[in-house]
Amino acid sequence: MWALRAAGLLCLLAAAAGGPCPRPALPPDTVLSAVGANVTLPCLQWQLEPNGTVSWKLENQAVSSERAVLGASLLLRLVQDRDSGRYSCYVGGCLVRALRLLVEEPPEPPGFSCYRRSHVRDVLCEWQPRRRPSPRTRAALWVKKWFTGENATEKRCRYFPKVDKFTCRVTVPPSEDDTLLLVSVSVSNGAGSVASKGQVISANRVLKPDPPVNVLVEPVERAPQKLRVNWMYPPSWDSRFYRLHFQVRYWAERSQSYTEVDQLRETSLVIHDAWHGERHMVQVRGLEEFGHGSWSEWSQEAVGTPWADPNSLEWQTGSYSSQFPSDYDFYSDTFTGPPGPYSSNTEGANGEALGVSDRSTVPLHTFLVTGGSLFLGTGLLAGIVLRYKKKWRRGSLGQGKASVVVQHPLVLLAPPSPTSPVSEAPLLSPPASPGSVGSTGPFEVTNMDYLLVPQ
Q1: Are 195 and 185 in contact (CB under 8 A)?
Q2: I want to staple 307 with a disulfide (CB 3.0 to 4.6 A). Which of 181, 219, 339, 435 is the partner?
Q3: Which of 61-75, 131-145, 417-431 has the weakest average pLDDT?
Q4: What pLDDT is recorded for position 312?
Q5: By the 8 A CB rule, do 19 and 142 touch?
Q6: How confident is the model at residue 305 (pLDDT cuts 50, 70, 90)?
Q7: pLDDT tens digits along 259-277
Q8: CB–CB of 101/33 below 8 Å?
Q9: Confidence band (pLDDT; 50, 70, 90) for 380?
C-alpha cells in the first residue's frame, strides 16, 4: 500500500513538474542573446555605396566604438543586460533599419514557499530570484487536488520590484482548509523555461500569522524587578473569531541568554525576574490557538527598564543604604527601601505592585458622621447614668429613714383628767430620773414588759 502511494506521489510530482511552460514568442526584428556572447546586428541587405556612411544609435544615443565595431553590420562583444534595447541603423542620415536586442539568461529554478496569514486570507506562494529577472519573464503556479483525476489549474504570478519577489495567490474555500493540494511553479523568458518540484500543502498546514504589533514594555511602580509587557494582534488576523497563543522572550542588555514564556492567551505579561536598573529587550510571536501551521516571525524588539526610585541615588546604582532618612519615613510610618525577597509588596489584579506604603483615601464627611455619632451616643449614655443615679440616691435615703430607731421611754402615759381639757394634758410624761426605781437605764427602748410579765 505504501509503495503504491509513493509511486502515485512520484507520478503526480512529475506531472506537476512537467507542466506547460511555454516560451514567450519573440516579436519581429528581435535578436535574443545570452549574457557574455558576441552579437552581430545587420543593417543593409545590399552593398554599401563608396561615399555612403553608416551610423548606429541605441535608444537615440550614439553607440560607442569602445565595445562595438561600427559598419554595415554592428558587432557587440560580450553583451550584458544593459546592452538590451532598440538599435537603429542610419545611412547618410536616413533611418534604414531598427532591431531590438534582448539579452537574457535562462530563468532560475524557483525555490518557492507557501504560507497563509489567517483563516480568512488566501494562500500565498513566494520566492525571490538571485538576480533581477528580465521584463519578459513570466511565472505561473499550477495547482491540483491531491489524488484526484482533475487537471491542474494555472494561477498567474506577479513580480514586485520593490521587494524583489514573485508572488502567486491561491484562493481556498473554508470547507477545504484541510484539503491536500499539489502545487508547482514554472518560469520562462526568451532564453528558456524551467519548472520547480511539486509540493503537497494544505491551507491549515501553511498557516503562519504575521508577528504581533505595538509591543510595549513599561516599568511597574515600586517594583524594581518587574516589567509589564503589552502587545496587539496583527492587523491581518481577525481576533473576533480566531485566537492566537503567544510566546514571549526577553533578556537583559548585558545578559548572555534569554528567557521564554509559552502558552500565553492574553496580550499582556508581567515579568517578575527583571534585572534592577538594566535595559531589557522583549519580542513576541504568535501561533494559531489549535496548533495549526507554524509560529509567526518574532516581532520587532521593544526596550524597557524596571522602575527605580528617582529620589535615591543608591537605588539607581543598585546599592541599598540602611540609614533611617532614606529607608524610613517618620511622618508616614512607611518603609521606602527596596523590596527584598520578604517584602510585603503584592501584585494587584491589573498587575501593579501594591506595597505597604499604599494608603486608601477616606472622605472628610466620613470622619464628620462618625465623630457626630460618637458624640451623640456619649451624651445619651451620660444622661441615662445621671437620671438613674438620682433615682438610686432617693431610694437609698428612704430606706435609711425607715431603718432609724426612734427611742421612746417605757413610762405609762397618765390618763388625762376628765375636768381638764384635752389640749392641756401633756402628751408625754417627763422622763424618770436615772436613779429612780424602775429605771432601766439605757435599755429603756427595749420591750422589757415582755420579759417581766409572767406568762
Answers
A1: yes
A2: 219
A3: 417-431
A4: 65
A5: yes
A6: very high
A7: 999 999 999 999 999 999 9
A8: yes
A9: confident
For the full predicted model, state whether its pTM sits above 0.85.
Answer: no
pLDDT at 41 over 50: yes
Give Cβ neighbours of residue 337 (< 8 Å, ≥ 6 apart).
320, 326, 327, 328
Specify burial of residue 50 (Cβ count, 10 A radius: 0-12, 13-18, 19+).
exposed
DSSP state of 117: S
- For CA atoms 423, 427, 433, 438, the dihedral sign is positive
Rounded to 5°, the CA angle 417-418-422 comes to 75
For cell 439605757, the residue is 442
Residue with cell 565595445: 67
Give the whole-angstrom CA distance, residue 247 versus residue 262.
5
Cα–Cα distances in angstroms (integers) from residue 263 to residues 218, 219, 284, in the given order:
21, 23, 12
Question: CA–CA separation, 88 vs 63, rounded Å?
Answer: 10
Strand partners, 13: none
Number of other CB atoms surrounding residue 252 within 10 Å: 20
Whole-angstrom distance, CA of residue 410 vs CA of residue 242: 119
Residues 6 or more apart from 200 whose CB is under 8 A from it? 9, 146, 180, 181, 182
Answer whether 329's CB lies under 8 Å from 298's CB: no
Percent of the chain residues topping a pLDDT of 70: 66
Give φ, ψ of 264 to 5 degrees. -95, 125
CA geometry: angle at 442 spanning 438 and 446, to 5°? 80
3-state secondary structure of 4: helix
Q: Which H, E and C letters describe 254-310, residue by residue?
A: CCCCCEEEEEECCCEEEECCCCCCCCEEEEEEEEECCCCCCCCCCCCCEEECCCCCC
pLDDT digits (tens, 9 = 90+) for 393-417: 655 544 444 333 333 344 444 444 4
Listed residue (430, 428, 399) closest to 416, CA to CA: 428
Residue 72 pLDDT exceeds 50: yes
Cell 491536500 belongs to residue = 180
Task: Round to whole Å and give the CA distance between 226 and 229.
Answer: 10
Residue corresponding to grid cell 558587432: 75
